[in-house]
Specification:
Elements (H helix, E strand, L loop, with lengths): L16 H4 L2 H21 L7 H9 L6 H11 L2 H12 L3 H4 L6 H37 L4 E6 L2 E7 H21 L15 H6 L4 H14 L16 H29 L3 E2 L19 H25 L10 H27 L2 E2 L1 H15 L1 H10 L4 H17 L13 H9 L13 H4 L8
Antiparallel strand pairs: 1-2, 3-4
Helix pairs in contact: 2-7, 2-10, 4-5, 7-8, 7-13, 8-11, 11-12, 11-13, 12-13, 15-16
């Protein structure tokens, strides 16, 4: 290949959203907006718009000559005018009334809103699928003890399923955000948002202006409409859209990064295919490459939130054009990457492989430390000082880690008071006695279903 090709949708494929954001679909959506505008204007009494003109526009809607459009844009240095000229060229009658009373952002903003709304439907479905996989694992592994880590060092016990439940809780917050996310339709507002052009077109008939915008929004199944805008809808909405994607990526990054850490501790592995190579130099390596890749792409989406924020705050007064170029890149690419990230995340969670023997061995080896909290609690109940017991255990256990690393009770029995507490309270090394409410917390999501 002699020219650069973007890795988005080539290496990191998004089969659904790549079609939604394709040039072909965008142009057809643009033209349908023009057709709908003309149809509703005619319905509201504009006699200059004829049935023949509309039929011509409909007939030629899907006839797209990209080279012709590009040639016009090179000459005119204006993308929407290039589309208008190319479309009008095929429609002698329709071209006369095309774009009547509209501005470039009647097309740009409404097309974006339509595609964004469709994209979020796909993202919502994929996020639901990911949550379902995590719920399944949360319940499946709800009773298997594993070590919880603080500061990346062994702490107390949870269950494997309970860790899934922790990841799930974050993603359910993101899912809730999507459910309440408003994507309004801009409609037709005129050059600076006052609808002055519409008022003149309809001889100051306010009801017809409102009816035109209501019917346009209804055609594209929008329940929310922009009430006040400049030449464009406020780019604050774009900040909200990318924030929603960024938030999902933040939750996924946390989960995938945790899996990478657990992989380093040899507790869990990604699915590793029969002929898969982990390293060109070290043939034994089983790197968590998919998790690493997902984290890398998540960072890109997360950082684009700052880019779209800068775009919003740099919009001058009713509009400037420095939003256009960056929006062409950020918005479609973030959506396409989100589809790929979610798809890959589902595969990772669905095919995780646990090293149960290693997990069980680690838990049993660490039990001598795990029981320390119970020793402290029962010691205080017997009348001993909490601080004294804590200090005794600290001396024994930190020294044990650095020297003998004895996983049995023996090191604890070297202290008479600790021995008394253990014997009087029948303290055991059974891991199931130290998982707290982990099992119950694996099913906490059922309360929000």
């Amino acid at each position: 290949m002699s020219e650069y090709e973007s890795v988005i949708n080539s290496r990191y494929k998004a089969p659904i959203l790549s079609k939604i954001w394709s040039s072909d679909n965008k142009i057809k959506t643009m033209r349908q907006l023009w057709i709908d505008l003309a149809c509703i204007q005619k319905e509201l009494g504009l006699d200059i718009i004829t049935d023949e003109a509309i039929e011509e526009l409909i007939h030629c809607r899907d006839i797209i000559d990209m080279n012709n459009i590009k040639c016009y844009e090179m000459r005119l240095k204006h993308d929407i005018m290039a589309h208008i000229r190319s479309y009008s060229e095929m429609c002698p009658l329709g071209g006369k009334i095309l774009h009547l009373g509209a501005t470039s952002n009647f097309i740009n903003d409404n097309v974006d809103a339509i595609l964004i709304k469709s994209s979020f439907l796909t993202i919502k479905y994929q996020l639901d699928c990911l949550c379902d996989e995590i719920k399944f694992n949360s319940e499946k592994y709800s009773t298997i003890p594993t070590i919880a880590y603080t500061h990346l060092q062994p702490a107390q016990l949870i269950t494997i399923g309970r860790r899934f439940s922790m990841w799930l809780q974050d993603l359910l917050l993101d899912n809730q955000h999507l459910q309440f996310l408003k994507i309004p339709f801009r409609g037709i507002k005129g050059t600076v948002g006052t609808e002055d052009t519409l008022l003149k077109l309809f001889n100051n008939d306010l009801k017809k202006c409102d009816s035109l915008n209501d019917k346009l929004a209804l055609n594209y199944n929008f329940t929310d409409k922009i009430a006040v805008c400049g030449q464009t809808y406020s780019r604050k909405y774009d900040v909200e859209y990318i924030h929603a994607l960024s938030s999902i990526c933040q939750s996924i990054y946390k989960m995938m990064n945790d899996i990478r850490l657990l992989s380093g501790k040899m507790e869990v592995y990604e699915d590793f295919k029969e002929e898969q190579v982990g390293s060109s130099a070290m043939p034994y390596k089983k790197n968590p490459i998919t998790c690493e890749k997902i984290c890398s792409l998540c960072r890109l989406v997360i950082n684009h939130e700052q880019n779209i924020t800068q775009t919003y705050i740099n919009q001058w007064l009713e509009r400037s054009l420095d939003d256009s170029a960056i929006k062409r890149i950020i918005i479609p690419e973030c959506f396409l990457l989100m589809e790929y990230i979610l798809d890959e995340s589902v595969k990772v969670i669905k095919n995780l492989q646990f090293n149960f023997n290693h997990i069980n061995t680690s838990v049993n080896h660490h039990m001598v430390n795990i029981v320390s909290e119970e020793i402290i609690i029962n010691g205080v109940k017997m009348g001993y000082s909490r601080q004294d017991i804590h200090e005794r255990l600290r001396n024994i256990l930190t020294r044990n880690i650095l020297t003998r690393n004895d996983p049995s009770f023996n090191c604890l029995l070297t202290d008479n008071i600790i021995e008394t507490i253990i014997n009087n309270n029948n303290i055991t090394f059974n891991p199931m006695n130290y998982i707290g409410r982990s099992i119950e917390q694996c099913f906490i999501h059922k309360e929000t279903d």
